[in-house]
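Aim 2 progress update. The chain analyzed this quarter is reproduced below.
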Amino acid sequence: MKLAKIVTILASICILAIATPAKAQRLPEAHLKIAERAINSNVSTEGSFVSASLVMARTNNPFEELRVAMLNSPAPVIGHPLASKMVNYAERFLGTRYVWGASGPNAFDCSGFVGYVYRSFGIDLHRSSSEQFTQGERVAMGNLRPGDLLFFSSSTSGRGRVGHVAMVVSVDNAAGSCTFIHASTKRGVVYQRFPDNGYYQKHFVGARRILGTSLDCTASLPADHVQ
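Predicted structure tokens:
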């Protein structure tokens, strides 16, 4: 009898639970509003949860270092509008042999090469490197641009006295360096990185700018002028 009573009671409870309206099982209205506000704030793109997630995803992605490096990269040093044309023109003579006193186009010495490039764009420079050092305007190393001239001493000129000249072709401000082109005695017309922690760094005398100064008469020339 006792077992039958227990079964009857349990059956009654189950029937009661099934018959209870769903509305009676809902949360109080105030609780529902709080929950809804929390969901909306976290789903919103301006909400703290999503914003924090986006920041975390952006900073932890494998290309973040590259992205930051690109954003922080300095703008390329462009310089005078004619400089890139002069650089491209000078590159035509890479490998041309060195001959002392030669002014091109089949052979050059250092000042003959620089003078030949500038003359091809309507600018006349003095013949020797020491005389070219008196032309244009002095330029600080931190302000170099393509087309500027770098001057060095040599074994024949003596320490501190100009005996060699080269032309800047590109500048890397981030690295604090540049690349120049020149007619070297041993290899002819070649590129050289500067500073080089070697010969050219030890023999550096100074830099001069010709383009954009009173010596520059290229403003009246056609944009594609090359002799």
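The two ends are 122 Å apart (CA to CA). DSSP finds eight helices and six strands in the chain. These observations will guide the mutagenesis experiments scheduled for the next reporting period.
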